[in-house]
Amino acid sequence: MATLSNPFVMSKEQKKKKLRVGVAIDGSGVSEKALLLGGRLLHPDRCDRLYILHISDPNKPWLPDTLTPDHLEHEYQLKCHEQQLDGVWYKKEKAKGQTTCEALVELTEELQVDILVVGSFGRKGERMICKPGDKLHVVWVTTTGADDSDATLQTYKDAMHEAKVEGTCFMSGTKAGEPVADGILAVASELDVDILVMGISGYG
Fold first, then answer.
1. CA of 100: how far to CAs of 21, 54, 67, 93, in Å?
2. What angle do CA 197, 102, 128 make, to 5 degrees?
3. What is the pLDDT of residues 149-174, one digit of tens each?
4. How many angstroms from the chain centroid is the CA of residue 72?
């Protein structure tokens, strides 16, 4: 079992700072889990804002109706209502020659999003999000340890080594009684995270 690191703790100033949380959606099941986590990062007393972000491609008229921007906007408005979230929808069309990731980053910068939550992969399968110069931190935030944590973390370390990605991989504990979502936010704040990627199994 991996040793839990001391829990990261946000300062009083960080806890009071109003957050702009962005959630990228594309109609995949994993993006629904990203919305779930994005909602749990919000604190009503901070008056945090939630932005639902979608990148559309005008050169793909063959997409089914369920994946059109209008349908996704309506669907995620309902999901936000079900989760009692006040999410604001924003759509951006990809420019010619622009990738979805590039358009998404551009949109988050325009909206001054503090942290962006995305799924581990979308409708097209796995994609490498890291660009040259980026750092990847794989963090398992938990209230307790796990018997298979060493083997699980080593799997990520091996994958990072093979992909030649710079970063760290570790397990982090939470403060007693603290929600896991708060522990995730504390780690993201300490590591100055811009993009928070969901694991395939989601967040529980």
1. 19, 9, 15, 9
2. 45
3. 677 788 888 888 888 888 888 887 77
4. 18
